[in-house]
Write a structure and sequence with these properties.
Blueprint: H1 4-16, E1 27-30, H2 38-50, E2 56-59, H3 62-68, H4 70-78, E3 84-90, H5 92-100, E4 107-112, H6 125-129, E5 137-141, E6 159-163, H7 169-175, E7 181-185, H8 195-212, E8 223-226, H9 228-234, E9 242-246, H10 252-262, E10 266-272, H11 282-287, E11 293-299, H12 306-320, E12 327-333, H13 336-344, H14 365-384, H15 391-398, H16 402-412, E13 418-422, E14 429-435, E15 442-447, H17 449-459
Parallel strand pairs: 1-2, 2-3, 3-4, 4-5, 5-6, 6-7, 7-8, 8-9, 9-10, 10-11, 11-12, 12-13
Antiparallel strand pairs: 13-14, 14-15
Helix pairs in contact: 1-2, 2-4, 3-5, 8-9, 9-10
């Protein structure tokens, strides 16, 4: 709900079938700021407080909402049935709100916006600790986290996503003993330790795990993703199913060590063609002796000539020749940064076209102007940092014979069974490879999008 008109329509609909319609209300999303809804606070509050099957609540302009509508906040707090809570553009108000929530939350997402914080970056520890026994999933961005949670244990959390500047295994493993999925990032360069310090942290983490023995390790961890620096400091030594990160020439040797320690079945790696040469992946592949699936995304921005692409795949096929890889996903893109900007501009947070007051004037003009200005700044920054890709390279990639690429991969990778090729401005191409009984010949077919997508989802 993002406008007064939508809120009024929602309240009228729900209350016209009161109370039976409350039984069917499972999710509410407040997608933006809205003004002049004072008359609707009471009916909306009644719905929020009495919706006994409301499982999921999302507030996109969290601190603004909490500050301007205390009556609705009281209604939400009085509801004891909410399981999933997402707070976007959160700050000090969100932390106070979390402490008041009485529902047995199983999933929490809190995305802090620095402008919503008065003073230093706060800790979210106290806000989450009351849900330590019920939480299954945590997604926290920009808050202080690990350093303030050493006294708490989250025995049932299986999925954790955080942005954390100080990652230490002796803290994390006891806190989250049942983890299956871990995503951990620290993009702020000012938090990155020096190389010597990072190597020391890595060695200490591995020594601590060795001293604890097998019984206390992450026995259920399956998926591990994040920036290489954070993963290297954490230094997990348990066998995992999937390892994912962004590679550069500066971090590839540390990622290689991660592969040796975790022996992933599946690798998902991303690199810019001008930041990492294909031959630098050789140690990574060799270190992953149990590799069965690999997904590689290559940002073609910076390719100088068609030979760049040819060189990448010559090395790539040569590297995989002696592996047991059966699933291969190749993706080419021109602007890796566009994926981030597209995610940030999710349609659920965009201004609504029907967000008008009774006089036909658009509400939230300030919000719309701010969003437009933010988008313009992001786009200008992306353009400023994009190297030019010659038109000849774009034409080469556009005309690339995908079937020929897959044929060469199938010939050079004897265990290959499934493949997907994704290039700019083209539909995804899925393939299945058949090995003939003579052992030397093979054939392949194109799969439908539905079948190919299902296979890739299961294997990659």
């Amino acid at each position: 709900m993002g406008s007064r008109f939508k809120i009024r329509s929602f309240c009228d609909f729900m209350l016209s079938g009161y109370p039976s319609r409350l039984w069917y209300l499972r999710e509410i999303i407040f997608s933006k700021t809205f003004k002049q809804v004072t008359k609707l606070v009471e009916p909306l509050g009644q719905i929020l407080s009495e919706a006994s099957h409301l499982d999921s609540l999302e507030i996109a302009r969290c601190d603004w909402f909490l500050e301007n509508y205390p009556g609705l906040v009281d209604a939400i707090v009085s509801n004891h049935h909410i399981k999933s809570l997402r707070l976007i553009k959160a700050g000090d108000q969100a932390l106070q709100f979390l402490r008041r929530i009485c529902s047995p939350l199983t999933s929490v997402t809190v995305l802090l916006t620095p402008e919503c914080v008065d003073g230093p970056v706060p800790s979210i520890a106290l806000g989450l600790s009351k849900f330590s026994k019920t939480l299954l999933e945590i997604n926290v961005r920009n808050f202080l986290f690990a350093a303030h949670l050493t006294v708490y244990t989250y025995p049932n959390v299986t999925s954790l996503t955080i942005e954390e500047s100080d990652v230490r295994m002796p803290v994390f493993m006891p806190m989250f003993p049942q983890l299956r999925e871990l995503s951990i990032f620290c993009f702020c360069s000012r938090f990155a330790p020096l190389d010597d310090e990072m190597d020391t942290i890595h060695a200490d983490s591995k020594a601590w795990q060795a001293a604890q023995g097998e019984a206390t390790r992450w026995r259920f961890l399956e998926r591990l993703e994040g920036d290489v620096h954070s993963l290297f400091r954490l230094a997990p030594t348990c066998k995992i199913r999937l390892l994912s990160s962004i590679l550069t020439s500066q971090n590839v040797h540390r990622f290689t060590q991660l592969c040796r320690d975790t022996q992933p079945d599946t690798l998902k790696v991303y690199f810019h063609s001008d930041k990492l040469q294909a031959h630098e992946l050789e140690d990574v592949i060799q270190a992953s002796s149990q590799l069965r699936s690999i997904s590689i995304t290559v940002d073609a921005m910076g390719m100088i000539s068609e030979m760049d692409f040819s060189s990448i795949f010559v090395h790539f096929r040569r590297m995989l020749h002696l592996t047991a890889v059966h699933t291969l996903y190749i993706r080419l893109t021109y602007h890796a940064g566009d994926d981030l900007s597209a995610a940030e501009s999710d349609s659920s947070y965009a201004p609504d076209s029907d967000d008008e007051d009774e006089n036909g004037a658009l509400e939230d003009e300030d919000d719309s102007a701010d969003e437009a200005e933010e988008e313009a700044v992001i786009n200008s920054l992306l353009e400023a940092h994009r190297p030019n890709t010659p038109d000849s390279v774009k034409r080469y990639l556009a005309g690339l014979d995908v079937d020929a690429v897959i044929e060469r991969c199938a010939r050079d990778i004897p265990t290959l069974r499934y493949a997907c090729f994704d290039k700019p401005n083209s539909p995804l191409a899925y393939f299945e490879v058949f090995r003939h009984e003579d052992g030397g010949t093979f054939s392949w077919i194109r799969l439908s999008h539905a079948v190919g997508e299902k296979i890739m989802a299961n294997l990659c």
